[in-house]
Amino acid sequence: MDGAATVAHGETLTFSQKIKSGDFVGLSFKNFLLNMVTLSLYRFWAKTEVRRRIWDKVSLNGEPFEYTGTGKELFFGFLKAMVVIFVPYLTVLLATQFVSKWFMILFLPMYIALFVLLGAAIFMAFRYVAGRTTWRGVRFRVKGSASDYGWAYLGYGLLTSITFGWFAPAMTMRLEGKLWSSLSFGDKKLTWQREANENLYGPFALAWIVGIVGYGVFIALLMPSFMGGLRPNGVPDVALFFKIYGYALVYALVVTVASAAYHAAVMRAVVAAIRIDDARFSTSVKALDLIVLSLTNALIVVFSLGILTPVVAARTVRFVISRLSSTGTVNLAEVLQAPRSAGGDEGLADAFDLSPF
């Protein structure tokens, strides 16, 4: 009887979206014009409006999500982050110039701290967006330490460097686990349980080999061009710059195609590892899907000079949601409200230009 009662209260989770790229074209030009007039200060309010419209078009079990963040929160969070980053750096710089050159030693720990702050910024941005997302009036919440995540980001980054990139899949999954396992819907916590057959290193090996070999070919092609492209006065010929950018574009396209299978595998592994009650998630994303999305998004950004970035954000969310599915049930009948989180969390991510959407 108890089991039957639990099942009766459980809900299956069905995601849907009604996002149309055309609905974001007008908003894109509005945001662009207001950013021009305000010298880009409007971007915080622009970002907020884009999120509100996207969230409103995404539904779970027929009920839309709601984004409750404000541009004011993002703006003041950004100002605080700029103080945290630049005041210490400026202080050491002035001390080095006017007090003693020995203060230069402090740049090393500050450089290390920069990577810790970078990781902390990712965690805080995730926490802010989650805390400003509601469904059925209930907020999402992230519990955890931004500093712990920042130090983990630094440590895993060092391991990735030492292993010439081969620790990257483990780094990605461990950091994703720290984010998603800290998330809850109201007082109902999500859990993180990785699958045994993630199959990440096969696609990663392909991407790694193509990236390294491609870079070698890129340099080999440029060397004779660079040596022959110098004028007698040592100034590079204009044609050389076109060659550099042309080769770089080809290299970027090759790497994008070669790494698509790996990024698709990561998406599938991350989604499959997320749990809430008896619900499990999966995504049908394939490498070709990511290639098409990445290239078309890049073309939209390039040919619109960045104006249609909100359209790209909307297309990306539509891409993810349309391929997301769930099995099992979740007991949502007795979920309690989560407390409202701090408003300035995303400021550090804005300072590093890491904010989602």
Automatic annotation (TrEMBL):
It comes from Caulobacter sp. (strain K31). This is DUF898 domain-containing protein. InterPro entries: DUF898. Keywords: Membrane, Transmembrane, Transmembrane helix. It holds the Pfam family DUF898. The chain crosses the membrane at residues 24-45, 74-96, 102-130, 151-171, 200-223, 244-270, 290-313. It comes from the Bacteria.
